[in-house]
Structure prediction request, 233 residues.
Amino acid sequence: MTAPPSHITHPKTIKSFVTRAGRTTTGQAKALAELGPKFVLPFQQTPLNATEVFGRAAPLIMEIGFGMGDATAHIAAVRPEDDFLCCEVHEPGVGALLKRVGEQGLGNIRILQHDAVEVLEHMLTPNSLDGVHVFFPDPWHKLRHHKRRLIQAPFVQQLLGRMKTGAYLHVATDWQPYAEHILAVLQAEAGLANASSRADGFADQPSYRPLTKFENRGLRLGHGVWDLVFKKA
Prediction:
């Protein structure tokens, strides 16, 4: 591999994703081909008209990094009154969620196969989001990689600029040190108020968020999961 030029250091902009390898299955490819044109939106540098895209005026929830879409499809099904704008760059995950959209007849999901940081910057206007979901972001375990973590003050401030007053931010992680880091970042933000009354600052798992297969496996092994729910003051 060619080494980067000596003057280039760590990138200054945080990305909302980590590039992953993975094979798209036949079913996922079929869903991409058949449903992609309707449910996958092109990235653009002009504001999104959510009413036009979804065909109605409804609360808009942004999900950042939905993996294989299990939780996303479940939440969209149990909250049909809300619309979900979902960002994921991993093509097998996009195909998997599209497959669920087709199987379950979900009309309240639209997907952007693009970096959520750029979507926030270019496609969403101030006070346009009623909620944000960030479930199991990469914890970047090693100390030297902590600066790559998504949940940091500049990113939270960017989210706040797009959230309505009273809108919520729901983050979940299965890595306790990252949970403590996220809690500290959110508590330090004057524009946010903790929606939980628990003494430890974490939230009980909201009823709409299901346990994923990965999460169930972790819980059986004794691993914890931490939910954090804050609202824009």
